[in-house]
Amino acid sequence: MLDIEKKVIEIIRSFTFIDEEIQETDKLVILGIDSLMLVEVIIALENEFDVIFDDSVLNPQNFENVQSLVDLVKSTIET
Questions:
Q1: Does residue 1 register a pLDDT over 90?
Q2: 0.85 surpassed by pTM
Q3: DSSP secondary structure string, 13-48?
């Protein structure tokens, strides 16, 4: 697992009460991340990776599961 993936999972874990291992395929809603928590997750990711997500990428497909968040962070860092 790459450092970005580990850090994204660590951030998501900080907003959940799940003791089990979080997988890249886990859906955020199943992990207990609601819309308000998702805003906090987005802010935490922006702070951690020193990025700002453009409004154009703030769509449901990018926040479906852990892997989609990892992909979003990676693509934002690369641009």
A1: no
A2: yes
A3: HTT----SPP-TT-BTTTTT--HHHHHHHHHHHHHH
